[in-house]
Amino acid sequence: QVQLVESGGGSVQAGDSLRLSCRASARALSMYNLGWYRQAPGKERELVAALTWGEGLSYYADSVKGRFAISRDNAKNTVYLQMNNLKPEDTAVYYCAAKVRGSNDYTSWGQGTQVTVSS
User: Fold this and answer.
1) Sorting pLDDT into bands at 50, 70 and 90, what band is 55?
2) What is the DSSP letter of 29?
3) Which conformational region is residue 29 in: left (phi greater than 0), alpha (psi within -120 to 50 degrees), or beta?
4) Quick one: which of 12, 32, 72, 90 is 20 to 30 A from 101 by CA?
5) Are 36 and 81 in contact (CB under 8 A)?
6) Quick check: helix, strand or coil at residue 87?
7) Residue 116 per-residue DSSP state
């Protein structure tokens, strides 16, 4: 069980940058993978980026490769999503999520933070 608290969303213009933060609380975060999902109205929730907490190995959706970067701060138990060169199609509610390492499903979720990108 992981408690996740998100921050950093907002309204920006195309080309701007944002950094989302997710503070995680768990007895052993090395057991988990941390990911960022996003969901736009009428769309299914999609995985944007993820990392293994222990090794720091990362994954990115093709739509954000080269623009977004996921990272962690072990001392602060925090995972970040640095979003550069934002585009209107990045507009969505972004969720921090966690799953047990080796499992198939993300089962712990943050409250979500809105990111709106205008042209």
Assistant:
1) confident
2) G
3) alpha
4) 90
5) yes
6) coil
7) E
- Phi then psi for 89, rounded to 5 degrees? -70, -10
The 10s digit of each residue's pLDDT in 71-117 is: 999 899 999 999 999 999 999 999 999 999 889 999 999 999 999 99
Furthest C-alpha separation in the chain? 43
User: Do the strands 68-73 and 78-83 form a parallel or antiparallel pair, or are they unpaired?
Assistant: antiparallel
> Distance between CA 3 and CA 44 in Å, rounded?
23
The helix/strand/coil state of 16 is coil
Amino acid at position 27, single letter: R
User: What torsion do the CA atoms of 105, 57, 113, 108 make, to the nearest 10 degrees?
Assistant: 30
CB 105 within 8 A of CB 45: no
Encoded tokens for 77: 């138990």
Identify the residue whose tokens are 């996740």: 4
Residue 95: name the closest of 32, 42, 50 by CA: 50
**For tokens 């009428």, what's the residue?**
42
